[in-house]
Amino acid sequence: MAPAATTPSDVGDFWEPQAYSTSAPFVATSSPTLVQLLQAHGSERILDVGCGDGEFTANFIDSAGFVLGIDASAKMIKAAKSRFGSEKAEFRVVDCRYLDKEPPIVDGSWDKVITNSALHWILRDEETRMPTFKAIHAALKQNGRFYFEFGGHGHVSEAFTALLSMLVQHGYSMEEAKAINRWFFPSKEWTQHMLEKAGFAVEMIEVEYRPTKLTDVDEGGLAGWIQLLGAPMINAIPAAQRSQAVKQVCEILDPVVTKPEDGSKWLGYVRLRGVARKS
Ligand SMILES: C[S@@+](CC[C@H](N)C(=O)[O-])C[C@H]1O[C@@H](n2cnc3c(N)ncnc32)[C@H](O)[C@@H]1O
């Protein structure tokens, strides 16, 4: 019998800006290719979908005309506003699964839309996938471009496996465990197909296997990463059992992710990256 769970459709705001900068500071800085592709300049209006704490957005605020960062987490948006908010950079709470319900944003006025490391959360629910792609398309000016990078098929598969297995050990069936999961890591082919169906011409799409070194600071490291990014699965078990569950997941992962020569820990990040033009 499965213990009471958070529902898959509403896991609450588990994002913590402090924990994010301790356990995953590399997310905002590990996408130089995407920032180079964007080439923000002049008076361009740029929409950043799933902007988080604004650390990634800050890569192009100075070179763009105006930037709007949107994210479902009120805590991340509060952090982004306080650190990077200005006349040139606004941040707003928006659940991008329902971006099509935001006419003031989806108004065909954006030169560019960018998203880094957020689509694999936003696209989790099947019924809102195409509406999200279509809303991004509608938000852009004609010939405007969508620049994206997110977790592709096989992303952090060792951590994903250990978290699913933890849920099964706590009494969930595999079907229930899969439903609790909030990640969606599609293939290049699927992504290209969906973008074309939404009206984009895909100009570039690629997959990069990019092992990523975890931090080694207190509160960060493997346990910090599992606790924050695995929160929807960890929070599905009773509160009293969570710290022990994180410990067990880390024990299973440790021999897989640790480099024997120096003890550093790495997760298998798979980046799916591309550029699509509104045609
Ligand atoms: C790994 S963080 C990436 C943040 C930022 N783009 C960066 O590069 O640092 C993922 C972000 O996706 C956001 N997110 C997840 N689901 C979302 C949704 N349905 N709508 C909008 N943002 C969402 C989270 O709140 C979180 O801030």
TrEMBL record:
GO terms for molecular function: methyltransferase activity. Pfam families: Methyltransf_25. InterPro entries: Methyltransf_25, SAM-dependent_MTases_sf. GO terms for biological process: methylation. It comes from the Eukaryota. Keywords: Methyltransferase, Transferase. Residues 46-144 form the Methyltransferase domain. This is Methyltransferase. It comes from Periconia macrospinosa.
